[in-house]
Amino acid sequence: MAQPFQHLLVPSDGSERSDQAVERALGLAAALGARVTFLHVQPRVPVSVLGMGEMLDAAAIDRLAIAARQESERILNEAVAAADAAGVPAAREQVSGDLPHREILAAAERLGCDLIVMASHGRRGLGGLLLGSETQRVLVQAPCPVLVVR
Questions:
Q1: Which domains does the chain have, with CATH numbers?
Q2: How confident is residue 50, by pLDDT bands cut at 50, 70 and 90?
Q3: Which of 25, 29, 45, 90 is the Cys-Cys partner for 10 at CB 3.0 to 4.6 Å?
């Protein structure tokens, strides 16, 4: 008989759907006696700066980077607090990268996670095709099973 999942990786971007994935992951982890690692991928260049680099001075870019780090901290702190309340052992990872799916996959490998629990943001049709989906990319390339929360 296969061993139940022991270490869940839960990427979160702080959205309502990601918060739902955090809740589901915590319920599953509690039922299995598993631990979780929450992951937030912070863009290297704040998204709001793209295409505006020549219009912003270095101090403004620094302030945006600090705000992005603070938002990442908030997202992870809330997830860990929810894990504490649920009695689930939790760790946190904060990484920077331009391609979140690559950072999620790398973290799953590096940390030895045996399940990734993440949200689907529900892009369908042409929007999903053109924009792609971080969840879809993780599903295709993951080194372990992926549970998608809708």
A1: 7-149 (3.40.50.620)
A2: low
A3: 25
